[in-house]
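Question thread 4412

I'm putting together a teaching handout and wanted feedback from people who do this every day. The idea is simple: show students a protein as raw sequence, then show them the structure tokens that encode its fold, then repeat with a second protein so they can compare. Below is the first pair exactly as I plan to print it.
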Amino acid sequence: MPSGNACPRCGNAPLFDGYLKLKPACTACGLNYAFADSGDAPAVFIMLGGGAFIVGLALFLEVNYAPPIWLTMAICLPLGAVMCLGLLRPLKAAMIHRQYATKAEEARHKS
């Protein structure tokens, strides 16, 4: 089974050509990545999950310790940014792997 940041077919070549930009094709097996379109789903899932976690953490800190607002923001904002940016690439790769595994493609309607 290929690793998260590798080609979904062979697992030998990197999937990304930057932080989030996909390569046009696999350099090892030649798989064209034109099928790969994760859209906004990774960002939405991370914003919803990460946002709920950060808001929960901020509420926990406020209720239990009542720190100044600057301290809560100094803890929660960088943690939220690091968490969201850290999870974005792996989740995008996982969605592309699922698209390949399930042969997902655009719907085609007969006219």
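The second pair follows. I'd like the answer to focus on this one:
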Amino acid sequence: MCGALLKKLESYVRLSHSDKKALESAFAEAPNWVGARKDLIREGETPQGVNLIMEGWAYRYKQLEDGRRQILAFFLPGDLCDLNIELLRTMDHSIGAITSVKYQSVSSARIEQLTNTSPRVEKALHWETLVNIAIQREWTVNLGQRRGIERIAHLFCELFLRLSAIGQTSASECEMPLTQTDLADATGLSAVHANRVLQELRSTQVISFNGKKLKIHNFSLLREISLFDESYLHLHTEGSKFDAP
């Protein structure tokens, strides 16, 4: 039930058999479904648990009274939407589904029980939190310093590597259900500017689209265009170096 989460956590910390069993037990509740372009939870509502994305894509966003939207993060399978969210009395942002999303809501009490009984899982979840903070810092740099083409190219690099880490890429191809409006709202561009950037990236033949799939023909060039340094994703840390009983 939490295979993608397990893959990701094991890139941070090598988990033992008992660690994995404890993780599976904590996330053993029946899943929920929400349709594409619907909200899992809205700003102002009371959070009921920690949401784990199991299938599909979701996003964190803020929306102004006049309808303008800023996308703050994308959630992929295996992502936890704010590990300590139940500390909030009310949500200060919304979580929406891009595709149809299968997710599970787990109480903070179950998370606390898991981390109390499995110190290595607790360490891995701390890594997960730190990586999410690092991604947020990189998004701030994207909005504040990179040019339009650099912003979108950087986002494509990030999403491809995050999907690759959970086994959801095929060679140089991955799912890409984002609309031009989604890309614009995540990178601080207008929809027209985002369209021009996509045309430019296609014209250089560094990427192409086939339906809702992105194909990166030259990852090295895409990395160069976007000034991308993947170290902030911390994809290869303790998990590749240390074993567990």
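Top answer:
Good format. For the second protein you could add a caption like this: The first strand starts at residue 32 and ends at 34. The first helix runs from residue 3 to 10.
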